[in-house]
Amino acid sequence: MDLARLHGLTRLVLDAVRVVSRLVERTDRGVSERTLAWLDLVPPVGEAARAVEAVRRVGTSAVHATVRAVSHVVDAVAAVPFAVLEARAAARAAPPDAPATPLDSDAMGSAAWLADSAQGALSGFFGDYLERRGNRLDPGMSLRRDGHVVRPHPAELARAYAGASERIAVFVHGLSTTEWSWSYGAREQWGDSRTCYGALLERDLGYTPVYVRYNSGRHVSDNGRELARLVDELVRGWPREVREVVLVGHSMGGLVVRSAAHYAARDDAAWLPHLRRVTSIGAPHLGSPIEKGAHLVERVLGGIGAAAAQVPSEILRARSAGIKDLRYGYTTEEEWRGRDPDAFFEDHRRAVPFVDSAAYAFVAASVTRDPEHPLGRLVGDLMVRVPSAQGAHPERPRRVTFHGGAVLGGLSHLALVNHPDVYAVLRRLHADEPGLVVPVG
After folding, report:
1. C-alpha angle 114/104/182, rounded to 5°?
2. Are residues 181 and 173 in contact, defined by beta-carbon separation less than 8 angstroms?
3. What is the pLDDT of residue 294?
4. 275-281 and 208-214 beta bridge pairing
5. Which of 90, 229, 291, 393 has the fewest Cβ atoms nearer than 10 Å?
6. Phi-psi region for residue 149, left (φ > 0), alpha (ψ -120 to 50) or beta?
7. Sign of CA dihedral 109, 115, 118, 124
8. Model pTM greater than 0.90?
9. Which helix (DSSP H) or strand (DSSP E) does residue 65 occupy?
């Protein structure tokens, strides 16, 4: 594990100590107050109980305050050696203008891949918190090639994409993952660990694939706005004149690419005329039943007075802004700004217009071979139901009216990220074959 991640993990653990301390203290007080309220019905007993509780509370408060104070001291002291070590490591690193080293692939299952995956998982669940705290585990947003950061500077782009074409395909991963997810199951599906949609589109249609890693715990709209800026820098610094840009997103990434197109149009981005297609794969455009279920459990547990229910309720409530955006598929700031994210099932999703120059398509799936099977209709791909991935809301003003797409049978949510059936759809869409609507598989 590199120093930045180790420092970030250390800070996160110390933050967790303080958060848990406050949670335990708050829950303890809430439970004791409810007990005292019952005892107050018998005044002499209630008065005696409150006197005892006052003494006990002084002691427990002192213990919790000490725990938090010690964690703050450890945090501050630990920052010094980490700063020194990171400065030394930076001094030994190659200067920005040095020749690029070969971008060797980190094979799935390697230590580097596992570290990236763990960081991606953490950012999905707590990414907004990591960002607020300035924690080094916040991955931010960057272009990646074989796990390495590629800055959108002309010289660096020229080195990383020496054989760049005029057509760019930008791939955006889903919640709690990284760009490595696009290679999931590659050896089983293709017989080659490096085969994925990007490599295939490059081989078959001449697109140069570009992969993005981002903090999936942030609001979808924040990531969409930042992706729009990043693509603008990418196009400006690209080694060749860009003729076409396409955006492809899996799961949450499908919402992020829609959001990026929206903000590019709103801000009249220079790259917008090059945008030709926006494709979402298994994206919860109308919301995810998993997040809706988590929201319901949080509220039910929160209404139970016992500490055993209050603690998990508070933990669920702490899930990231990005996850909460998945409840209804929010893609713009106006849908969540100034609203309580924990309000009980309040849907503020708006109809977000498409970019005129681009064709929008979806890929949806069900785990049953026949998508119309009752089980398939109920669970979809196990994470997203088919109507949500299609944007098929019963009320016309709230629909996401795609230009076309496909519903595939026998695929799970994770399988959608790298599967021959999905690639067949992507290839047809990006080859501009007649008719955007692809028959149900």
Report:
1. 55
2. yes
3. 92
4. unpaired
5. 90
6. beta
7. negative
8. no
9. helix 43-92
